[in-house]
Prior knowledge:
The chain is an alpha/beta fold.
Amino acid sequence: MHERTLxxxxxxxxxxxxxTHPEQGGPFPCVIIYGDFWGVREELYDIAxxxxxxxxxxxxxxxxxxxxxxxxxxxxxxxxxxxxxLLTPEQMGQAAKxxxxxxxxxxxxxxxxxxxxxxxxxxxxxxxxxAFGYCLGGRLVMKVAAAYPERFAACGxxxxxxxxxxxxxxxxxxxxxxxxxxxxxxPETDEHAPPESIELLRRTLQANNVRHHIEVHRGxxxxxxxxxxxxxxxQAYNRDYELMFAMFHRQIPPGFAP
Length: 258
């Protein structure tokens, strides 16, 4: 496997970006990962590697680069990362520093720079791009698919936050513009995406004839898909990848070593 970290230049500075893909068999279709509240870390690098070994060119940007090199995690006595609702106010303040200079709109703009970079690397296959994201990253996947409909072909949203609500900037409102197929992995219990919002999402997808699958994982909580997390749900995690890889194979078939 090839992997490297580089800085992509944007009007707001240098966006640290992790890239990984197989050594042979390219060029490879591209997949962009949009991280969660916690920002980039080894856990997300390993997820990128998991996707890359299946024959993809994977890009993981640091969405919080405007706040500097923001790296924070808190672990319990079992070595598991602690869910946000168990943090002290002081810990929560540290974890939220990345949001001080972050907006969805800025991340959508950053995506244009990623897409432009992909066009310069011979290991990256031209054409449709895949994406998936966790938590706030899931919401961003929906927004970039609407902003760049000619580029995004397959999109995964894993325990996405604020993906369908009554606000004028709700991510579900852009689904009429997307051309991508979508997979949604949803925990049964999630205050950031309650059942009524999932139903609104479902109706909107159907009304706009968006090819999609929504999987609700019984017993799972928000953040279930993070392998290091104190609430990790292995069954739900594996089911997400089973269905998401199937979607990627339909829309952006992978490259493989000869």
